[in-house]
Amino acid sequence: MKEAGVKAWLPSLLRLALVVLLIAFVTNPGWFEPLLKPLTESNAPAIYNQGSLLTLTLLHLRTVLIATVAATIVAVALAILVTRPAGVEFLPLSRSLVNIGQTFPPVAVLALAVPAVGFGEKPTLIALFLYGLLPIFENALTGLTTLPANVVEAARGAGMTGWQRLVKVELPLSAPIILGGIRLSVVISLATATIGSTVAARTLGEVIIAGLLSNNLAFVLQGGLIVAALAVLIYDGLSAIERYTARRMGQETA
Amino acid sequence: MIEIEGITKRYDATTVVDDVSMVIEPRTIVVIVGTSGSGKTTLLRMINRLVEPTAGVIRLDGADNRSLPGYELRRSIGYAIQGHGLFPHRTVAQNIATVPVLLGWDAARIKRRVDELMTLYQLDPQAFGPRYPHELSGGQQQRVGVARALAAEPNVLLMDEPFGALDPIIRNKAQEDLLAIQKRFGTTIILVTHDMEEAVHMGDKIAVMDAGKLVQYAKPAEILAKPASAFVETLVGASEKPFRLLSLGRVRDAVETGTAEGEAIPGDASQRDALAELLWSGRPALPVKGADGKPLGRVTVGGLVKRAARPA
Amino acid sequence: MTVRFDKLGVVIAAIVAYAAFAAPFATFRANRIVPGEARSILEALPAATGSPLLAVIVAAALIALLKTPLIMRLAAGVVALAALALLIGVAGSFLTPEGNTFARISPASGFWLLIFAFTLLLADVLTRLNLSPWARIGVLVVAAAAIGMLLVSGSWNSLSILKEYANRADSFWAEASKHVTLALGSLAAAVIAGLPLGILCHRVEKLRAGVLNVLNIIQTIPSIALFGLLIAPLGWVATHVPGAASLGIRGIGTAPAFVALFLYSLLPVVANTVVGLAGVPRAANDAARGMGMTERQRLFGVEFPLAFPVILTGIRIVLVQNIGLTTIAALIGGGGFGVFVFQGVGQTAMDLVLLGAVPTVALAFPAAIILDAVIEMTSTGRREAQPA
């Protein structure tokens, strides 16, 4: 009994430890200096010294958050549009566009956005927004087009209007799948945002690139690990929300 | 001949098949009946060693089935399962040719055999051979599944709920086809089902399994007449018993002398069908005709009712 | 007869109207770094071609706007795109002052929007035509041939991106071959390692969750960090393992890029192999065993062919992803088209960025179309039969 208890709690404990570690690292990176020191050469600094890690982490998260919220609103709205009778003729085209869109590499999108909006956070936001759109749109489309036919039929039979069906039946039922798309999109964005620093966006990529340029492995490692830890935690958190909504719906989790 | 001796299968602490012994005569159909979880499928799968027994021996024509590597043994035994298990990426002809190809037959012989089996199963080789399984109806898929199992002319055919996925009308047809083919090739068939109706209809002998044990192994009439336990009794279905008994007999065996009015019933129809027809039409007797159409006599309600009574 | 509008056509016509009349068609710059001056269609083209181009564009937009037969829409899209492609080259030579080698002419937002609008029209037509896989590859080949001919004929040579190319034609092809080698090589390595690993994960349930979790976590590490992190171990290998350095293994350069791309590629290959094998119908597997196939015969004769389309989908994901990620290899000296992108970003020379970004997209896009077509070809006739 006891052993099973430990096993069940272990993942949560690990996550909690990761959260604590992450917060400790970005607020007091000095504590970890001895760990990273061996990775540096000729007395280079072991902790990023051209800006606060905490600020960069928060800026990184802010960039991802803004891009994801915008991408979610637009992607879900578009998915709703092409699954309504009025927009249904756009459905095949929108599918092809999503397919085509996914072949554009994030770096290319980022670089191509610079001439239009200049350097800094803006091109990063555009790239993250465009790149984030695709998984959410695709999942929303899947969710809205694979609803159990009998449930939609029943909603229609109960006399719901199109709007009521959408808000009370279709969206709640496809919520877990849409959340899955958002989760994918966030994880991609967290990693892609680091590339934004090549066009002067202030994200954790700054730390990694500084490390690459000055051949300082400690920088590369700390930047990379913070982003990876953020991604793992956010991925986990969103998965938990997804499972919760799916359970409430009585659906199996994939 | 298949001799099963003290066969047992245990997974950890659970005994799935418990010390089963039985002998299956060549050229007969034995039906293994039981509820789900009774161990009937496991018993079947131990014959071709898809499952290795924990204890006991199975001999095919005197030879221990472990004297060959499992895959070679299985190539010599036909195997058909519920939902047919056709390979979706291979055409019908390729599916049927599976075991002959494994056995290394030459192409001409394989083609001959595939064409022969498809014709036998009323599937035009030209039209159906190059099709993929998903392009066939459920009944056609099932027929291809059995044809594939028979492709290498096995002496023994194992069938696990082969008709389970079919609707009643197609199922009847499939059962009749199988009986005809068994008669033609003389294959020994061991068939697993949970449907007592099917067991009585198909089996020369019926083996009833419950919780891993062989509860009764006997001819259908005996199972109906003298169920060995309360479990067999339930499985047989008390209210169905007389009708199942009648379904075992043919009309020609119940013919009495005399004549009757109306449409004649064929001599090889089942006595159950004859009684149903009598009751439905409200007549006391029906004329019986032979396969050549000549009158054989008549069957009466009274005569059939006597035959439906518990045998002494 | 009532006039009926096509819904998508309304969108296309609106974009075309804005792009043709309000947005600049081309940008003129005195040299490669200074800000540009906008030129409209009529300013950018000689009078004899400017008005006809406008006429073609307006006509094509009208065909898109109204409900017209598919074949007509197809023709309108093709003609409009061809006219735009030809005339942007004409604009290049027209706007370049005689004998001036510093001036840069590049397509501007109006041109790109027009291209986008008519591509949308064509994409819609092609989607509605529901082409077979071979036909789709055919369309791709025709389009590639047309673009290739325009490039070879030199009619675009006066455009800024090709001037950048002319300045570094040698290094362009060297980086191109590095890019392709890195992207395809790491994919090949991932397939060679990932397939057996996937099969193993399918067979040994205990391994599955562990392996997939580790690969999942690797995917969350940002690519530039993973590239950087591999510098240290590979540098160590290069100096400490005899012979490693002569194989080209170095701390920076191609080796860490290759390893990082390989690691990223493993997850889709392994995960899709596992999913594909798990999707093989139980009954087919049981029948295969029951008919006396050996483990090897079952793997290669039944499981593998049935899982193949799913595995191929994983390979498609990896290929497209690798072509994009390889651009980042340039940051650690791994070469590839990223060299031009990052140089261009550094010099704020957007033409140079385009010289890196456009070929990357030009590789990824056909790769996706071809693999999608192959996946569809291998999946037909193999859908699992539904029991009646």
UniProtKB/TrEMBL annotation, chain A:
Keyword set, alphabetical order: Membrane, Transmembrane, Transmembrane helix, Transport
InterPro entries: ABC_transp_perm/SBD, MetI-like, MetI-like_sf
Ranges that cross the membrane: 12-32, 59-82, 103-120, 126-152, 173-197, 217-238
Membrane topology: Multi-pass membrane protein
Transmembrane among keywords: yes
Pfam families the UniProt entry points to: BPD_transp_1 (PF00528)
Localization per record: Cell membrane
Highest taxon, organism lineage: Bacteria
Domain named ABC transmembrane type-1: residues: 57-238
Family (UniProt): Belongs to the binding-protein-dependent transport system permease family.
Protein name in UniProt: Glycine betaine ABC transporter membrane subunit YehW
Source organism of this protein record: Mesorhizobium escarrei
Organism placement in taxonomy: Bacteria, Pseudomonadati, Pseudomonadota, Alphaproteobacteria, Hyphomicrobiales
TrEMBL record, chain B:
Keyword Nucleotidyltransferase: no
Keywords: ATP-binding, Nucleotide-binding, Transport
Keyword Transport: yes
Superkingdom, taxonomy of origin: Bacteria
ABC transporter domain segment(s): 2-236
Pfam families per UniProt: ABC_tran
InterPro entries: AAA+_ATPase, ABC_transporter-like_ATP-bd, ABC_transporter-like_CS, P-loop_NTPase
Protein family (similarity comment): Belongs to the ABC transporter superfamily.
Protein's name in the database: Glycine betaine ABC transporter ATP binding subunit YehX
Natural source organism: Mesorhizobium escarrei
Lineage: Bacteria, Pseudomonadati, Pseudomonadota, Alphaproteobacteria, Hyphomicrobiales
Gene, per the UniProt record: yehX
Automatic annotation (TrEMBL), chain C:
Pfam families named in the record: BPD_transp_1 (PF00528)
Domain of life from the UniProt record: Bacteria
Locations listed in the record: Cell membrane
Keyword NADP set for record: no
Transmembrane segments: 46-66, 78-96, 108-127, 139-159, 179-200, 212-237, 257-278, 299-319, 325-345, 352-375
Keywords: Membrane, Transmembrane, Transmembrane helix, Transport
Predominant location category: membrane
Domain ABC transmembrane type-1 intervals: 176-371
Membrane topology: Multi-pass membrane protein
Family indicated by similarity: Belongs to the binding-protein-dependent transport system permease family.
Protein name per its UniProtKB record: ABC transporter permease
